[in-house]
Amino acid sequence: MVTLNKIIYKFRSVEYDFSKRTYIMGILNVTPDSFSDGGKYFDSSKAVERALEMIEEGADFIDVGGESTRPGSEEISVDEELKRVIPIIKSLNQTIKIPISVDTTKSRVAEESLNAGAEIVNDISGFRFDPNMAEVAAKYKASVILMHIKDKPKTMQQNPVYQNLIEEIYSYLLNGTKIAEGKGIDRIFVDPGIGFGKNLEQNVEIFKRLSEFKKIGYPILIGPSRKSFIGNILELPVEQRLEGTAAAVAISIINGANVIRVHDVKEMKRVAKVVDALK
Question: Does the active-site annotation cover 128?
């Protein structure tokens, strides 16, 4: 069992103490083509309704994403991404009290989202795709989630090869935190990037050795929800991966995860609560 030394981040008027319990980030994909729920919440009213539902189910954060990053996905324009996410963020900012995160790799999308009420930038590239991202996050005193990815989403699953998987991910994330710290950003999360340029065996190794990322010194966020590694293990389609997700969430918490990013908030909130109590 691995615990985090006391780290408290303040969002608006609420303190989140990551040494106390596991926090849940609800996924809100406002895309037509995400791997799991593409098109389901593309309509803005349905998206807001789903966000409110996730909060009722126990979400501590809402993560709004306007561009699919599933394997093989194509990039979309900045304008298209803005058209998808800004109305949702503005509406949620007027409605909800928990922090809003924007899942983007584009600094302009991040800036307009932060202007609209988001407080967290979730950058799957860990500041690598857009050199202005750290500057924008610092300007708005935003929190950041720095994830590891190998290559771009379009090609990331085409035979990913590592000399030393954990060491390379660790170095990538550590470098991202140094960039953030250099800009004065002090609320940082690190995410090893399950399924982002990793095959089944590599994903399994990350879960087994997740605790090693504690040495970076920031809360660990992980997103195992409905991912293909679960489908590969169980030989089941995406809509039948709830139990597999629950197992991955449980082992993640035991091995040191502080925030779990999931689609199925109600169920995973229950899993987290039980694991927190038992560990």
Answer: no
